[in-house]
Amino acid sequence: MTEIVDQATSYIMQLQKNKDSLKRRRELLRGEDHASSSSSRMLPIMNITTMDSTLEVNLICGLTNRNFMLYEIISVLEDEGAEVIDATQLNAGDRTIYIIKSKAIISRIGVETERVQERLQNLVL
Length: 125
Description:
By secondary structure, the protein is of the alpha+beta class. 45% of the residues lie in helices and 30% in strands. It is built from three helices and four strands; from the N terminus they run αββαββα. α2 (70-79) runs antiparallel to α3 (113-124). The longest helix has 34 residues, at 2-35. It starts with a helix and ends with a helix. Residues 33-40 have low confidence and may be disordered. It comes from Melia azedarach.
């Protein structure tokens, strides 16, 4: 019974983190519309979502402020115990969109999302 409560608590905490992340992303997008019409000055927008042992990274950045490569993002995920199952890089006008889907190599252990997010933020900012 306590395992179910622990899993439910963990899931609720993850949903709260996802909600906060999406709220920050929305605020950044709204601020970008008012601050400048040029996305070359756009800060990278990153959203990380997890479900069970899977992790998805979505990253949007301007072409001119990109100082990293897709393989570097994949390396961070692999270093943190994730196996990349799909990686996509799209160029849309003056923006680059990365979508990386991965799963934990050891599902019991999972992937420490906060550490991944911290390392990726250090990489893209």
